[in-house]
Amino acid sequence: MGDGAKAKSILIAGAGPVGLTAALELARRGFVPRIVDDGQGPAPLEESRALGINARTLTLLSAAGVTDHIVAAAQPIAHFRLRSGAKVLANVDTRRLPGRFCAIHGLAQGATERLLIEALADYGISPEWQTAVEPETIADPLKPEVTLRRLDRTTETVRPDILVGADGAHSAVRKALGAGFPGEALEAYFYLADFRYVKPVDAHFAEITLCDPGMLGRLPVSADVLRYISTLEDFESRIVHPEAIVEKTWVSQFRIHFRHVEPMAKGNVFLAGDAAHIHSPAGARGMNLGIEDACWLAWLIAEGREQEYSALRIPAVKQVLKQTYGLTRLVTMRNPLAIAARNLFAPLLLRFGPVRRQLLHSISGYDTPRPPWIDWAE
Ligand SMILES: Cc1cc2nc3c(=O)[nH]c(=O)nc-3n(C[C@H](O)[C@H](O)[C@H](O)COP(=O)(O)OP(=O)(O)OC[C@H]3O[C@@H](n4cnc5c(N)ncnc54)[C@H](O)[C@@H]3O)c2cc1C
């Protein structure tokens, strides 16, 4: 790559985990991207959407020096349990994976964002907060033009060589491109609540209890905070808390959508992360898949091959949507016969080595194409 390529002006809309990763991966390759976000700062530590960081993401962020900090701050999730009432149907040891990392670590999304911001600061780049990208329409995606609006209502017109839309599920950049976001939403609502306990709890396993119908998941947020997530509105009455509660730190409810944009780019405008695809949190893939998009895009820009981005990413996106759709259907089924069959066969299948390995492989994020610029074993 010549210095001409590095001189390209790059505007990244959105300083969530995906926009920050894109900025960092470009910065470590000599680019000076500008990154803006309409929020006040990174996601609050106590309102964490993403918790799971998979092994592929740890591989990807190694080059930028972020992985060691994530591993130091995160909880390695050593076991994944599937229960039906008090009975343990399956217990998968997530450390039984070749390579440097266990399949998944737990860390609040806000903490991950702060680590990315710190790494980016080493290159002299900081997100410009309270700065919204307001593209009405992008008439010529080969020469994108957008308006930036600050909190004080001042505006600036920017014409970057490359515009990256990492501005989340309601992406203004995607809408300005006139790109659809086809897909479907599940009927059911999901409910979540995070609890802080008086002292540390066992934060090294994740668990799904099948309630038939419905499910209750338990996930570690930190050493003394657990998340419960469920399809049942009255789920809190079903929780067996491991310790006395100090406080409920966050509650939320949401519907799950399975949507993706195709293609993921037009001209010199590229969509990454939730701006390009959204799906169920089952399997903890959303943020991880978006971080992967950002890393691939930065590498392709550095190689002068960014026009290949969409064709290279779409198969990975479709694969993850399909996998998370299957997992979500498995834990939300209502038909008694289907439930009985699942409860009989799932534990048997999970005792079978190749099935366990396949499950671990996809939880790790290793089921998408390997990043070609990483020259060490994952
Ligand atoms: C309950 C739940 C649990 C989840 N658990 C996991 C998990 O365990 N693992 C996982 O990998 N994923 C998980 N996800 C998904 C994950 O949270 C998202 O995939 C991830 O946040 C996407 O990151 P992003 O940077 O693309 O978008 P976002 O995190 O949404 O960031 C977009 C940023 O763009 C900014 N923005 C928006 N519009 C504009 C604009 N016009 N101008 C400027 N800035 C703008 C926003 O302020 C925001 O900071 C979960 C999601 C939910 C709902």
UniProtKB/TrEMBL annotation:
One term of GO molecular function = oxidoreductase activity, acting on paired donors, with incorporation or reduction of molecular oxygen, NAD(P)H as one donor, and incorporation of one atom of oxygen
Q: Which domain of life is it from?
A: Bacteria
Q: Where is the FAD-binding domain?
A: 10-192, 236-303
- Per its Swiss-Prot or TrEMBL entry, what cofactor is needed? FAD
Q: Which Gene3D superfamilies match?
A: 3.30.70.2450, FAD/NAD(P)-binding domain
**Keywords noted in UniProt:** FAD, Flavoprotein, Monooxygenase, Oxidoreductase
**InterPro entries, per database record:** FAD-bd, FAD/NAD-bd_sf, RIFMO-like
Matches recorded under PANTHER family: BINDING MONOOXYGENASE, PUTATIVE (JCVI)-RELATED, TRK SYSTEM POTASSIUM UPTAKE PROTEIN
By what name is this protein known?
FAD-dependent monooxygenase
Q: Which organism is it from?
A: Rhizobium jaguaris
